[in-house]
Design a protein that fits this description.
Largest sheet: 6 strands, mixed
Number of strands: 18
CATH class of the largest domain: Alpha Beta
Number of domains: 2
CATH topology of the largest domain: Nucleoside Triphosphate Pyrophosphohydrolase
Strand content: 25-35%
Helix content: 10-25%
CATH architecture of the largest domain: Alpha-Beta Complex
Oligomer: single chain
Radius of gyration: 21 Å
CATH superfamily of the largest domain: Nucleoside Triphosphate Pyrophosphohydrolase
Structural class: alpha+beta
């Protein structure tokens, strides 16, 4: 999956420090990232490249995280025209970009960029927010409101019906491939209750025998995904919520499509079922 970058090691401890020349700069605008791209291969600016033409970067950098011994920094403002080999690309490129550790860094950095961008001012009193020096936190010096990065729990649900798996496609989204039933957890419910509610809402089916598979950070939507295998409980007639899904179908194990990207929990679970490896989750 996208977070599986071994032998590289991701360090998310908040340890802000001065950048070194070889540290990496991440720069974004809306849903795009400033990157050098050659086919699938990507690279980011190094801090030395940036400060050589834009000394103000020494005053505006924000420490994000480290991978191995390389630190990654967000620089919100950058004179892009000075870096002719770099361009803005939609963050969807991280689904197929290589090397994989840079793809993971790029989309994880985008999640933090989005959080910082949306919390420049206090939502309670409107005052400018300040970064904390000890933890990943923004606080308001006027009314003491505190904001932490937003992580939304959601479920990915593989519904089995004997030798068939329930596959669906989203309605009105850019992602057009097969997916599993998914949805966000609502206030006051457990993850298991989310599974049952989402399946009922989107396809009108009941499920049983819920078994947790894996979790995954999914920065494209700011979520922490919880994957479950479960079994159909009763009638298998699909009642489609057409606002959420364009289609849903029971697909035989051998007909499930292969996964060329190998980055998402959804597609890994589909592959596990296709290969008959889901039986341990019964």
């Amino acid at each position: 999956m996208i977070q599986d970058i071994y032998p590289h090691i991701y360090h998310n401890e908040y340890t802000p420090h001065e950048p070194t020349p070889e540290d990496i700069v991440l720069h974004y605008k809306d849903n795009t990232v400033f990157v050098k791209k050659e086919e699938q291969n990507i690279s980011f600016l190094k801090f030395s490249e940036v400060v050589s033409v834009y000394p103000k970067a020494k005053e505006t950098f924000i420490y994000l995280f480290s991978i191995d011994k390389v630190s990654y920094y967000l620089i919100p403002e950058l004179p892009e025209a000075l870096f002719s080999n770099y361009h803005f690309e939609n963050n969807r490129l991280f689904r197929t970009a290589r090397p994989k550790d840079l793809a993971f860094a790029g989309i994880t950095g985008w999640q933090l960029f989005t959080w910082y961008s949306e919390h420049k001012f206090c939502g309670k009193c409107g005052s400018p927010m300040k970064s904390d020096k000890k933890e990943r936190m923004l606080h308001c010096p006027n009314c003491n409101t505190i904001e932490y990065p937003k992580i939304c729990p959601a479920v990915i649900t593989a519904v089995r019906n004997g030798n068939k798996l329930l596959l669906s496609k989203y309605a009105g989204r850019e992602y057009v491939h097969y997916a599993l039933i998914a949805g966000f957890t609502e206030i006051g419910e457990t993850i298991e209750e989310t599974v049952k509610r989402e399946v009922m809402e989107e396809v009108g089916l009941k499920v049983k025998n819920l078994h947790f598979y894996k979790s995954q950070p999914w920065s494209f939507s700011g979520t922490l995904l919880f994957g479950f295998f479960c079994d159909l409980d009763g009638e298998d007639t699909i009642s489609l919520d057409e606002e959420e899904l364009s289609m849903a179908v029971w697909m035989e194990r051998e007909n499930i499509p292969d996964d060329p990207e190998q980055i998402s929990l959804t597609r890994e679970m589909m592959t596990v079922f296709k290969n008959g490896e889901d039986k341990k989750y019964c």
